[in-house]
Automatic annotation (TrEMBL):
Its EC number is 4.2.1.51. The keyword Phosphoprotein does not apply. PANTHER family: PREPHENATE DEHYDRATASE P PROTEIN, PREPHENATE DEHYDRATASE-RELATED. The record marks 176 as: Essential for prephenate dehydratase activity. It catalyses: prephenate + H(+) = 3-phenylpyruvate + CO2 + H2O. One of its GO terms (cellular component) is cytoplasm. PROSITE patterns: ACT, PREPHENATE_DEHYDR_1, PREPHENATE_DEHYDR_2, PREPHENATE_DEHYDR_3. This is Prephenate dehydratase. Keywords: Amino-acid biosynthesis, Aromatic amino acid biosynthesis, Lyase, Phenylalanine biosynthesis. It comes from Pradoshia eiseniae. Signal peptide: none annotated. InterPro entries: ACT-like_dom_sf, ACT_dom, Chor_mutase/pphenate_deHydtase, Preph_deHydtase, Preph_deHydtase_CS. Pathway: Amino-acid biosynthesis; L-phenylalanine biosynthesis; phenylpyruvate from prephenate: step 1/1. Residues 202-277 form the ACT domain.
Amino acid sequence: MEKVAYLGPKATFCDLAATKLFDNSERVAYGTIPECIDAAGKNEVDFAVVPLENALEGSVNITMDYLIHEVRVPIVAEFSSPIRQHLMMHPDNAGRIGEIERIYSHSHAIAQCHKYLHGELKGVRCENTTSTAFAAQYVSKHPEEVTAAIANEMAAREYGLTIVKPDIHDYAHNHTRFVVLSHKPIGERLDGLVRKGEKTTVMVMLPADHAGALHQVLSAFSWRKLNLSKIESRPLKTGLGNYFFIIDIDQLMDDILLPGAIAEMEALGCKVNVMGSYYSY
Ligand SMILES: O=C(O)C(=O)C[C@]1(C(=O)O)C=C[C@@H](O)C=C1
């Protein structure tokens, strides 16, 4: 049976995404996002499902940076899912919401609920955990502390917690983009799901700082009428002011247009890496 890595423990948002995508596979929980990427990089698993971007909080930098700087594993699919964050407590403490001493969750989940936390639970310390489900598991094991976790409904069920305040994310349209990483092609595995689009993600390093370099890169796409859905800069980690760009193009790799744009960028002195060419679900 094929193996799929996800950020564990059971009932994280990554677990929900992996279950939706690979229902008939063996899902293997890893403690951190880099561990999931390593597992796919070393072929310990066939696929890894990791978060890439959230609609409220932006990119999951650890995923992006690890893929660029440490372990290159191609993106073979993308899955976008609605995200609902709930405040949950141990059932023994569920009536004591006003006495909460600490709130645990993944940093991205805490960030998605800032307005609520600032408005309703001002002054309560928030502590980051490796995932939302890890936070729920911790709260379930420590009824002696009046603490809460921010996590999803499946985590509340899995770890026997009571949802004391549902839907505490700050904006209704909360979505996260997950990517599937693998050294093998995805083939027909996801054909049962509805395809929403197609993308190619490239990483572009500009030549030494000069006027108009980014403009020239963007024009390689624009005059070919290649639509971009995202452009983001991240530090190269070689010193302040040095960046690379991650660009999402709204089409699969073809024989002419994308190779032409890449050749043009290379002729300008850019270093270009294709991170993946894949369908969005
Ligand atoms: O902690 C989890 O449950 C995760 O799957 C991680 C993660 C993230 O890193 O963005 C995934 C989706 C949500 O946006 C919040 C947390």
